[in-house]
């Protein structure tokens, strides 16, 4: 009767809540991995001398005697970006998870600074579950969006 119907409503409400929570956590991880990926790539690019150039294009001689070779900065060349993208997801091991107590949303932060200065990590959790989820999300982004990522970093 009535009681049974009420229980079903409660179960559905809980399932919905769990699904929404799960989807939100999935979003937080994807978003966090994407932000970390861009940040790590930009940092790695910034470590290369911007004056270092690489020749790209075709070395074939065109009918008019010219060559379509151009010089581009090595740091943002396709070959260098591909090389960085192969290693970038390993950097997810340097990240921990910070949960906002008010919204329960998660963000991901480096738990080691690049220059060795101490960081406030009082509210950051690091465990292998966090880094492996981030790493998996990062690898998925790199696999699915390789071309867009290269275009994005070449043009910055």
UniProtKB/TrEMBL annotation:
One CC-aspect GO term: endoplasmic reticulum
Alphabetized UniProt keyword annotations: Signal
Coiled-coil ranges from the UniProt annotation: none
Protein origin, superkingdom: Eukaryota
InterPro entries per the UniProt record, alphabetical: CNPY (IPR042415), DUF3456 (IPR021852)
Secretion signal, residue range per the UniProt entry: 1-22
Family: Belongs to the canopy family.
Name the record gives this protein: Canopy FGF signaling regulator 2
Organism name: Cyprinus carpio
